[in-house]
Design goal:
alpha/beta; Immunoglobulin-like; eight-stranded parallel beta barrel; 31 strands; elongated; limit dextrin alpha-1,6-maltotetraose-hydrolase activity; EC 3.2.1.196
């Protein structure tokens, strides 16, 4: 016989206590909170147990006997006054904000909406269309973490499903799942590239927006979170959340870190007229930001209908508890924060000393993990690249756009390109940060793929159902003469070379490089630059045999191998003229030091940069020619007592080693030379 007694208000969520479970939630304006228990099928509600109120707006109840696997949800009653931002409705079954697992599927229906048109309270019970929370207590992660320093990190951004769903070398039941990412076939591939960290697109439980499902589409990317602690169930083979831990442990054993792309800026409850699924029904005004003086109107800095109110202490605790859970229990090594500016914005705008940032900086667990910001949102003052404090890293879209413009052949790009190759000192050095604070990338999940960047001059998003109005219109892209697919050998060869040029620039620039999945074998989305709703072959990587034999895979492998041999790329500080150990020098085609007037020649589309370690007598020379003509090049005198050796080039017109100091550099090509005492080469030396 089950019994219930007053529980304890902390910790929040469902916690094991002796032979029972303590349930605790936050609902300060509610008049009652009811715990609802369900049978093993999740269809029948077998008990409704009133919770007990505590000071501070917390509610709890302890139920015994009750074991792991129990299914539950909540019904919360209180005033229904939309004009005051109060949306209580006990007819709606709510998910526990601290739920660790779910049972069953979410189904869209009118029953999820708190009110009907004209603000009338909805009396429809939505329990039949809701998944149920599942009591689960996974053990803390006990694997050994790689703990790669940023200087040795190569990030590979990928989608859990899209990365492996078409890979025939992986068992069918693991394709498109967490366990597919730790299959030897996938690990061997990314290890060959030199990848040290997987950055997974949203892997916390999410649902598709109703407007997408009505068009027969799905939210593929996953930026529509339903639960902050729950691995997305569709990515599990057998529904066991411990599969996520298994994936992490296997990747760690292979030397691969796991970073999660997390969405703490908004939830799947959309706008004020959206569904009531969890937060909105517990305390709408605590969990979401509203317009000052208008509690019935959400602030929508996310563009997704609502914005999380991280200034509220309980909401801040929810997010930090979630982050610690993914680190301590699920084993992840860090996070990439979607629309991170929102998490550091209060009523006065973005604040680099925001409580959220300070909380992570002093947290004994979170201060040790990798933290990456997407430093922009659509709110006022939303673009904050370079404004996050140490130890944050930031996605550097200035790097992306500058490199794209240079290789497209735009004029006047040279001075900015030099800054990006030097680690974007103009962006990060002002607040005592270095080149390794910049996450450099050419492409990501959002926008053209690398292959499409050189194949399309305009976006082709018609299949998204928005008349091609969605997605960025300016992509700094080009098509090499033909829009889209072609069988012309000369155009295909040029496209391959241009992709190599971009990759060379990315992987030899100072900073932390990031690859988007599929860049290594020409993945195309047929010109769709906003494939967020394309859960199909448009987005899924097309594995054709062993992709590590693709020319781009080999090229990435070779550039990364060279990069790791030189201490230059591990230097965490910017190099200035008075640096006693390192030096950066820029040269003309004639091998002479660049003068001020050279930088301001608008038609100059040629750049040569030498990075030097005077202590170890190592140097690399990067030469980039984005012009439409070949250039007679004289290599500068090596800054170390050793001749230049050609390490890599994107050009197919050159074969074998090259030691000559003069040569004809073909149009639209990139070249990498090295000069070093052989005994001094070591990626581990500083």
């Amino acid at each position: 016989m089950m019994s219930s007694v007053r529980g304890v208000p902390r910790p929040l969520g469902a916690t094991q206590i002796e032979d029972g479970v303590n349930f605790a939630v936050f609902a300060p304006k509610a008049t009652s909170v009811t715990l609802c228990l369900f049978d093993a099928s999740g269809h029948s509600e077998i008990a409704q147990i009133p919770c007990v109120r505590h000071e501070g707006g917390f509610w709890s109840i302890k139920v015994t006997p009750l074991a792991e696997g129990a299914l539950y949800g909540y019904r919360v009653d209180g005033p229904y006054e939309p004009e005051r931002g109060l949306l209580f409705n006990r007819n709606k079954l709510l998910l526990d904000p601290y739920a660790k697992d779910l049972h069953g599927e979410f189904t869209w229906s009118e029953r999820h909406f708190c009110h009907l048109p004209k603000g009338t309270l909805s009396l429809s019970d939505n329990a039949i269309d809701m998944p149920k929370c599942k009591v689960v207590w996974p053990a803390k992660y006990d694997g050994k973490r790689p703990n790669h320093p940023w200087a040795k990190t190569l990030v590979y951004e990928c989608h859990v499903k899209g990365a492996t769903i078409r890979n025939q070398d992986i068992a069918a039941d693991k394709r498109g799942k967490f366990l597919g990412l730790c299959d030897p076939a996938f690990i061997d591939h990314i290890k060959h590239l030199g990848v040290t960290a997987l950055e997974l697109l949203p892997s916390q439980a999410f649902i598709s927006e109703q407007f997408l499902t009505m068009k027969g589409l799905q939210n593929y990317w996953g930026y529509n979170t339903l639960g902050f602690f729950i691995p997305h169930k569709a990515y599990l083979c057998k529904g066991d959340i411990r599969e996520f831990q298994q994936m992490v442990k296997t990747l760690h054993a292979a030397g691969i870190e796991v970073l999660l792309d997390v969405v703490y800026n908004h939830t799947a409850e959309a706008g004020m007229d959206g569904p009531t699924l969890s937060f909105k029904g517990f305390d709408n005004l605590a969990y979401y930001r509203t317009v000052p003086g208008k509690p019935d109107a959400y602030i929508n800095d996310t563009g997704c209908g609502n914005t999380i109110n991280i200034d509220h202490p309980v909401v801040l605790q929810l997010i930090t508890d979630s982050l610690r859970y993914w680190v301590e229990v699920m084993g992840v090594d860090g996070f990439r924060f979607d629309l991170a500016t929102i998490l550091a914005r209060n009523s006065g705008g973005y604040n680099s000393a925001h409580t959220f940032l300070q909380t992570l900086a002093q947290d004994p667990i979170l201060q040790k993990v990798k933290l990456i910001a997407e430093p922009w949102d659509i709110g006022p003052g939303g673009y904050q690249l370079g404004a996050f404090p140490a130890p944050w890293r930031e996605w550097n879209d200035k790097f992306r756009d500058t490199v794209r413009r240079f290789w497209r052949g735009d004029q006047g790009v040279l001075p900015e390109l030099a800054k990006r190759i030097h680690g974007s000192h103009d962006v990060f050095e002002h607040n005592i940060r270095g080149p390794l604070n910049s996450i450099n990338f050419i492409t990501s999940h959002d926008g053209f793929t690398l292959a499409d960047w050189v194949s399309y001059e305009r976006k082709h998003n018609d299949v998204n159902g928005e008349q091609n109005r969605d997605g960025h219109s300016e992509n700094f892209s080009f098509n090499c003469g033909v829009e889209g697919f072609t069988t012309a050998a000369d155009i295909s060869a040029l496209r391959l070379k241009m992709q190599k040029n971009a990759l060379m620039t990315l992987l030899v620039a100072k900073g932390v490089p990031m690859l988007s999945a599929g860049s290594e074998f020409g993945h195309s989305q047929s010109g769709n630059n906003n494939a967020y709703c394309q859960d199909n072959v448009t987005s899924w990587l097309a594995w054709k045999g062993t992709q590590k034999h693709h020319a781009l895979s080999h090229f990435i492998h070779d550039v990364i191998r060279v990069r790791r041999q030189f201490s230059l790329f591990s230097n965490p500080f910017y190099v200035h003229k008075d640096d006693v150990r390192f030096a950066v020098q820029w040269y003309t085609e004639q091998g002479e030091v660049m003068q001020e007037h050279h930088w301001h020649e608008p038609e100059r589309k040629w750049l040569s940069c030498a990075l030097v370690d005077k202590k170890l007598q190592q140097s690399v020379l990067l030469i980039l020619n984005a012009s439409d003509r070949a250039v007679n090049v004289t290599l500068p005198a090596p800054p170390v007592p050793s001749p230049w050796q050609l390490a890599l080039t994107s050009s197919i017109r050159h074969e074998g080693s090259m030691t000559a100091t003069k040569f004809l550099m073909c149009e639209k090509s990139s070249w990498l030379f090295t000069a070093t005492k052989q005994a001094s080469i070591s990626g581990d030396k500083q």
